[in-house]
């Protein structure tokens, strides 16, 4: 599977200079969380008419790697990141910058919903302008995903955040939920922009640029709901057949996906649990420091010591709060995205199997002379092409996906480790300075008899 | 149900006034025998702030720590507490000379001291002119008890949460290990990172065990608060006694005066009978005055000695309270410093583990 790749094998961490996605405080960075490294291969296979420049391989050197292990503390405004890119003087792969921000609530007589502002900046010729601003709601994202899956059934489409979370959701529109969703939607669009094939999808372009009414009318074109449902039913039925003749490499892929899905789900649960435990620890710690202050009120000789202990505890408390937020900014969204990705992948496998099944059923018909055999060889030829295309598309995208996954996971966990190190370093400094001040005082005082 | 006997291996040199050192063999004592010793000391040294015993039952437990009195960790901490109790007595300038204490350390059979004064410790009464210093001391001991209890409760909850945080990370170890089986490039990094997560998760046990010792140091002063209150109560008892005696004396003096002068202001049974059965004879009256005068004399002597006793008590008590205050300040400061030392050790371990883990992650 690795043989034919000409794409750069450079250790890309999956991020362009400027820090990880979803870490920036307010508006979100216009940088996607992944780079295309198998772009050249993709172009050959799909025979699309692409602009060569856009597919230049993005090779990173080591110095850039260091840049990526930013402490999340560093300010990551979009502007500073753009400047950084220019300063690096790199091959300008990125020509499509997307941000998702400003969630707004809309109330109508029938429903309440949230829209998000999407800003697109681009230098591509096929766009009418260089800057676009539109508002989209979750439904629109769903539509886009559906269209992409339709157009590219065996490509790994980035996942969307869930429709709603069943447990623990009191109010559909609480701030945390909206913010988490916004970040995930931002990631979604940037991943598409980064994808060597999907980035040129027509529906994607319309999604980014069309005004509300234009989008509505565009949506109405295309197969209706019922026919799409019919397709789904047929798909399920035939995919079962596809599994039987699945080539070896796809069997391996499927096994990996199943195991990966298990593990990433567990990791998701564990990570969420850690966050919860850290939060509860923080809540208790908040009470702990003040008790020492209370105590100092009745102890004349221990006032300073007790007050110092209280302030140390409070500082550690703040450090733990920072650790928590680091976890929720960096690790949790990444892990959760890959949980959703694993579901996506299973869908992709099914679709591939379905395409194969179509071919197999026609071959079967020809073999057993079931239907009118005149047209069959031609149909079979077309289907064979279709299967080969689908398989190759998946194979290439799979490699790309795996590479990104490794980079993303690696970065997310490295970040988490970094957060913990920083947390312990802060606490250490706090208590060490307390100890120093106490021992200094002790040396100053006359030594008393010790029991 | 029998308690586990606590073994004391104490090599004590008990120095008598003649400078002789006596080395004794080890002997066995139960917790209840320690309680007897302490009750005795409370009664016979009312002005001394008697060191407290470690807790009878495990309190302020956080859920992972066993509340079982037979739990080896609890027994070990109790042993340390009991040893500490004896050491405090041994280092007290007055208590260390006590004969019964010496017997406790040396004699196998320790007899029960049933003393009525023990019961007096629990009686309730009102004092008319309380000594402000003792009132303040009582308030202080109440505050001390309340704040330390609160602190211990919250500490236990914090410990519980901290335990949770560490232990959940252990799950990463297991899952990383399983995941590494299907990853070609990431496998090694995942596996070794997982190992470090296990190390992290298991490090909390020792950390919290150490913190229990800190909690015990605070608990001792929680119980010391009770000892302080006992001294205040004893003082109150004496004061009450004194006030009652003074009142009694005053009333007798007045009676006497009335008899001598012939005026009747106070109610007396004799006055009533006189009214009912007729005046008493001068001889009878003389006799009564004489009795009263004797009683007044006696009463005045008693009051004098009670006053003296009271002043002695106050003097000695305050001397011991001053000593106690200094000891308390030293000990609590030391305890707080040792808490800081523990935190530093925990942070250092954390830095090491996570640095190792980070290295593994970055190699993936």
UniProtKB/TrEMBL annotation, chain A:
<comment type="similarity">
    <text>Belongs to the sorting nexin family.</text>
</comment>
<dbReference type="InterPro" id="IPR001683">
    <property type="entry name" value="PX_dom"/>
</dbReference>
<dbReference type="InterPro" id="IPR027267">
    <property type="entry name" value="AH/BAR_dom_sf"/>
</dbReference>
<dbReference type="GO" id="GO:0015031">
    <property type="term" value="P:protein transport"/>
</dbReference>
<dbReference type="GO" id="GO:0035091">
    <property type="term" value="F:phosphatidylinositol binding"/>
</dbReference>
<keyword id="KW-0813">Transport</keyword>
<feature type="region of interest" description="Disordered">
    <location>
        <begin position="1"/>
        <end position="41"/>
    </location>
</feature>
<feature type="compositionally biased region" description="Gly residues">
    <location>
        <begin position="16"/>
        <end position="30"/>
    </location>
</feature>
<comment type="subunit">
    <text>Heterodimer; heterodimerizes with SNX4.</text>
</comment>
<dbReference type="Pfam" id="PF00787">
    <property type="entry name" value="PX"/>
</dbReference>
<keyword id="KW-0653">Protein transport</keyword>
<dbReference type="GO" id="GO:0031901">
    <property type="term" value="C:early endosome membrane"/>
</dbReference>
<dbReference type="InterPro" id="IPR042131">
    <property type="entry name" value="BAR_SNX7"/>
</dbReference>
<dbReference type="InterPro" id="IPR042130">
    <property type="entry name" value="PX_SNX7"/>
</dbReference>
<protein>
    <submittedName>
        <fullName>SNX7 isoform 3</fullName>
    </submittedName>
</protein>
<feature type="domain" description="PX">
    <location>
        <begin position="94"/>
        <end position="215"/>
    </location>
</feature>
<dbReference type="InterPro" id="IPR036871">
    <property type="entry name" value="PX_dom_sf"/>
</dbReference>
UniProtKB/TrEMBL annotation, chain B:
<dbReference type="InterPro" id="IPR027267">
    <property type="entry name" value="AH/BAR_dom_sf"/>
</dbReference>
<keyword id="KW-0813">Transport</keyword>
<keyword id="KW-0653">Protein transport</keyword>
<dbReference type="Pfam" id="PF00787">
    <property type="entry name" value="PX"/>
</dbReference>
<dbReference type="InterPro" id="IPR036871">
    <property type="entry name" value="PX_dom_sf"/>
</dbReference>
<dbReference type="GO" id="GO:0031410">
    <property type="term" value="C:cytoplasmic vesicle"/>
</dbReference>
<dbReference type="GO" id="GO:0035091">
    <property type="term" value="F:phosphatidylinositol binding"/>
</dbReference>
<feature type="domain" description="PX">
    <location>
        <begin position="1"/>
        <end position="111"/>
    </location>
</feature>
<dbReference type="InterPro" id="IPR034783">
    <property type="entry name" value="SNX4"/>
</dbReference>
<dbReference type="GO" id="GO:0015031">
    <property type="term" value="P:protein transport"/>
</dbReference>
<dbReference type="InterPro" id="IPR037430">
    <property type="entry name" value="SNX4_BAR"/>
</dbReference>
<protein>
    <submittedName>
        <fullName>Sorting nexin 4</fullName>
    </submittedName>
</protein>
<dbReference type="InterPro" id="IPR001683">
    <property type="entry name" value="PX_dom"/>
</dbReference>
<comment type="similarity">
    <text>Belongs to the sorting nexin family.</text>
</comment>
